[in-house]
Design a protein that fits this description.
Layout: E1 2-6, H1 22-34, E2 42-46, H2 55-65, E3 72-75, H3 82-88, E4 104-106, E5 112-115, H4 130-141, E6 147-150, H5 161-164, H6 171-179, E7 184-189, E8 196-200, E9 203-207, E10 214-215, E11 227-228, E12 233-239, E13 244-250
Parallel strand pairs: 1-2, 2-3, 5-6, 6-7, 7-9
Antiparallel strand pairs: 1-12, 4-5, 8-9, 10-11, 12-13
Helix pairs in contact: 1-2, 2-3, 4-6
Length: about 250
């Protein structure tokens, strides 16, 4: 099985001065996936789908994703608005998930995919309330099949201090749940605009780079948030029935 992951496309209708054309970048990523000799089974977009969460931006996002020749799984990030996202994709009723959150389970693939909503309206950082933590625990307990958890906010500190401040605030609570469920093969995230891996709860957290642009790598505690000239990118996760390997592909513009 091949799981393709895009993250943080930040689609905007008219790019602000000095910003990349995020719609052009996402269109190029879609075309690149469609042209693959071995096409992925599904595309997962791990949040910050749009920049401002507006109806117009979600309309453009839907247009950009329409040429994809594989199924699409969406989840929100801190730049998204749940109601507008749900309204823009009426053909995806699963986006109206558990407890009003955009979280759901995909059962019909070799890997079980659990989509977890970590967003808090009006906040950059993420948090899992007790309702969402309980849903995650129940969902993982329901099946011992190999599982990938998809969420926007990374649940670990990475040394990118400017982003660690706005990561998942209670990652330790999620880690305690995941440690009880050894079938979790990976937690895949976005938010950081960089490719990062870390051990977590007996498994691995994998952070996907952005199709928009990358964060400048600086591990100094007082480093400002600056963007890098590194190429926009996305990832392929290959499941061979026993292990998950990850490949990072630069965006071809």
């Amino acid at each position: 099985m091949l799981l393709c992951q895009f993250s943080d496309p930040h689609v905007v209708v008219v790019p602000p001065a000095g910003r990349v054309d995020t719609a052009r970048h996402l269109a190029a990523a879609v075309a690149q996936v469609n042209a693959m000799a071995v096409r992925p089974d599904v595309l997962l977009l791990t949040g910050d789908l749009t920049d401002n969460g507006t109806e117009a931006e979600y309309g453009l996002l839907a247009q950009l994703l329409a040429p994809l020749q594989i199924p699409v799984l969406l989840l929100p990030g801190n730049h998204d608005e749940r109601g507008a996202l749900q309204a823009a994709f009426p053909q995806m009723p699963w986006l109206r998930g558990a407890g009003g959150f955009v979280q759901y389970v995909v059962e019909d693939l070799p890997l079980r995919i659990v989509v977890l909503d970590t967003t808090v309206p009006g906040e950059e950082g993420g948090h899992l309330c007790e309702q969402r933590l309980q849903w995650l625990d129940r969902t993982l307990a329901a099946s011992a099949r190999p599982t990938v958890i998809a969420q926007h906010h990374p649940p670990v500190a990475t040394g990118l201090v400017c982003m660690d401040r706005v990561a998942l605030a209670n990652g330790a609570d999620e880690e305690a749940i995941i440690r009880r469920h050894p079938q979790v093969e990976r937690v895949v995230c976005g938010h950081l605009h960089r490719n990062v891996f870390a051990r977590f709860g007996g498994t691995l957290v994998s952070v996907c780079p952005s199709t928009e642009r990358q964060l400048q790598l600086s591990l100094a505690p007082d480093a400002p948030l600056l963007m890098s000239p590194d190429a926009a990118a996305f990832q392929l996760h290959r499941w061979d029935g026993a292990r998950l390997s990850t490949h990072t592909l630069e965006l071809v513009l």
